[in-house]
Structure formats: C-alpha cells, structure tokens
Amino acid sequence: MIGTSTESDIARQKSYSTRGLFSRLKDQSQQFAHQPFATLALFLIAFLESSLLPIAPDLLLIPLCLARPKRSFWYALVVALGSTLGAILGYYIGLKMFDTVGAELLNFFSWHSVFENVLSKYREHAVSALLFAGFLPIPFQVFTIAAGWGNTIPLATFVAATFGGRLIRFFLVGGLLFVFGETAKVLLEKYFGKTVLIVGTLLIVWILASKLLS
Fold this sequence. Notes:
By secondary structure, the chain is mainly α. It has helices at 2-33, 38-49, 58-67, 72-96, 98-109, 112-131, 140-148, 155-190, 192-213.
C-alpha cells in the first residue's frame, strides 16, 4: 500500500508539474502579446524569414492573434510588410551578393536542389510561383534569392507579386483567427498542453517535408 501510494503521489506531482509548465507558457505568451515591442518583434521575424533565416512568422503571429484576436488583421499586415521588405533584401542578395552571401546560405542549409526547383517554377510562371510560395514547404528566402539571381524577375514585378502573395498568406491566417480567435482562445486555455504538442508535431512534419523536397 505504501509503495502504491508513493507511486500515485509521484504521478500526481508530475501531472501538476506539467500543467504548471504549460500554464506558465500560456501566461507568458499572453503577457508578451501586450508588450509594446511585440509588434516590432513580429516585423523583424517576418523580415528575417524572407531574407536570411528559415523562421516561420506564424510561430509568433498565431500566439499574438490568439491573445488579441481583434488585432489579427493588423498583425497580418505587419507580417506582410516585414516579409516584403525582407524579400527585397533577399532579392538584392541574389542580384549583387550571390557569390558570397547567397551561395553561403544555400550551402549552409543544403538548398541547392530547392534553388533549382524554384528557378524552374519561375520559368513556368513567375508571378503565380510568388503568389503561392507561402503555401509550399519551401523556405521563402529561396524564392527571394532566386528572383534576384541573374535578375530572374524584374524588381517591380517581384515586389508586387511578393506583397500580394504575403497578403493572401497571412491575411488567411489572420482572418481565421479574427473570426474564431475568441473560441480558439477558450479552447487553448483549456487544452494548452495538448495544443503545444500538436503544434510541435506539425512543425516537425513541416521541417521533414522541407528536407524531403530539398
């Protein structure tokens, strides 16, 4: 009986510990959403995602929208603008610094085959490729660097198509969270731990899909 009671107490303590961890994560995400620098952080992540680092802005966009659903479209616009400006940097890397910065990025992330794949998509239909780039498991900065490489796509066309594609991509997320945000927020508060596990699993699947395509 003593052994059984001890094991039960240990299991209960672990359960409380896990719930406490997820509760702290939830509280911290809520607090961060109300910080004045949260929007700037979202902008910077979107900027880097389209030029230098494969960091999905959704990892911050979704928690911010869930914490403040009425600002979902504002957050989506911030991401679209940040991503478009970052894309211009990526374009410049492909155009002027491909042999140094661009080549190093392709080497570091093993994106050579992905780069060739994107170039082939541009040859088929450049504007459509940019408009729907956000729905493919391919890092967006590959699209931006490839667009500038050899001036594959004229800059004006690139900027217009990129901004349009980014608006579609992130306003879809923002719109869903604007409509269902309050409901999702209640469910998230109730099932925060499971949600974290599901999102983590989906992120791993996304990364593996990107690797397979590369």
